[in-house]
Amino acid sequence: MKSSLAIALLAAAVALCGCATKSGKAAPGADQDAYYDPTAGDVTVDPNAAGFDPDDPNVGAFADPASGNFEDRYTRISDAGLEPLLFTFDSYTLPTDELAKADAAAQYLLNNPQHVMIIEGHCDERGSNEYNLSLSEQRAGGVRDYIVAYGIDPARIQTRAFGEEKPAVPGHDEEAYRLNRRAEFVPYK
Which domain holds residue 120? Predict the structure, then answer.
């Protein structure tokens, strides 16, 4: 109940801040064709309605049972060739022109059933730390839900939210901001 209330409050705060609507469609006045519409295709979940649930049994499921350490059980794959999925400003809606990157991550997991993946959510430096952490959680969760819709076991995918703490590139201009608003795909075997 506590996590449901937190998710509801978070969704209301995001809606009031002018972000994309929870339906997955663009905010009023935006180009409606530039965003993923979960009701238009074969995907049966709304990847833009994701929320972090600390009571989810999959949180921390990758850790080694003996040591509790993730790295004791898995090795990071550095040459998977997965590109970060980029988001628009102040949004966790998956842009349709970026969906091929999420599709490639899903295909990677389908082709490598013994591998797991962490999806890392990131923001640019604009906004408060709390807001950026929340937004990065929503970004990572939305991408995770999109990939799970392929039929991949949700226990194979975890999310991490970094907010603005790990920029992909330094800088304080629009190009740096664009590259820092992202979800990274980090596979392990």
Answer: 2-188
